[in-house]
Amino acid sequence: SSAFGTRANGLRAAGDMRTRRGLCYPGLRQWEAQWRAVDEEEAGGARKRRRRLHRVGRRMAEEGAAAERPDLFDTLPDDLVVSILSELSASAAAPSDLASVRITCKRLNGLGSSPLVLATASVKSLAVGVGNWTESAHRFLKQCADAGNLEACYMLGMIRFYCLESRGSGAALMARAAMGSHAAALYSLAVIQFNGSGGSKRDKDLGAGVALCARAAVLGHVDALRELGHCLQDGYGVRRNVAEGRRFLIQANARELAAVLNPTSPTTAAAAAAWQHHHRDGLASGCSLLSDFGYNVPAPEAHPANRFMVEWFASRGGAGESGPGEEALRFCSHGACGRAETRRHEFRRCSVCGVVNYCSRACQALHWKLAHKAECSPMERWLDAAGGAEMMN
Hints:
mainly alpha; two-stranded antiparallel ribbon; 2% strand
């Protein structure tokens, strides 16, 4: 028996336990290794579950803290946001610049309607096209005008007076801009006074037109300077003074030339370089460089209000209703003007050919330099040519 016990102990120590049939069981060391592996696996799974629960809890806590913490944009004071929006509206290059900011969020939309923002909106941010003209665009211009934006007053006044045929409200808006020393509005009111636009021929007031032109000329408006110069040369609405009229014409052309040669001018540098190339002989010889005295400069950029009127009447094919047998209302032949007659025979015809007509002397001078100089021929020449053709037939 002692030998048998010694044999069993040896087998246990060796880890080799056998049954009577010879089957072998794993030893204690193998069992311990398996138990240890199972324990480690269970412990690793528990640690993973704890880490996962910890991440979920931390994320939920962060989300809850973020929900309770206010947005930094909401902490900005309204005065600061309005100041930023005012700078943006003053430097906007297109209507979409300000509109895209206002539709960003509810707060920006509300602060973007502030009178301070609308009053400083640039002319380019108000330059709506005919294709985008809607009731909302009309309402936006009205809001800017009510906020004191002089450009909006002028643009909406021109659109209402000439396009929408709301003469009273249009003239009132232009008058509001003119009282704020808006040069283009002063000149447009002068044209209305010269022509008696919106009324009858008896409503012409040449003296008022000259006074408005003089005020716009003091502010540097080129067309007003040119108009005033022609009025003084012709004695139209003012005592005739040829020398003073010539001085105003020289000032108008000098300003026109300076606008072309100025690198900050909207006119492109290429146009200015081309002008200098074609006129380098005149520069070298010291001859007059003024376009009214034989030299041409690139056409000035039209105001957005004039561009709108040109597009408006082009899309409608006429300036107004005309009955059977009646002559249709005419447009100013200077293509960049866009003004249309408010009554028949309101504009003056060219005294030489009688084919073209103009709302003002300034438009006549500009169109003469740009195109009509090469086209104008006396009516008698056309009649003689037509008579000769009939004789030949």
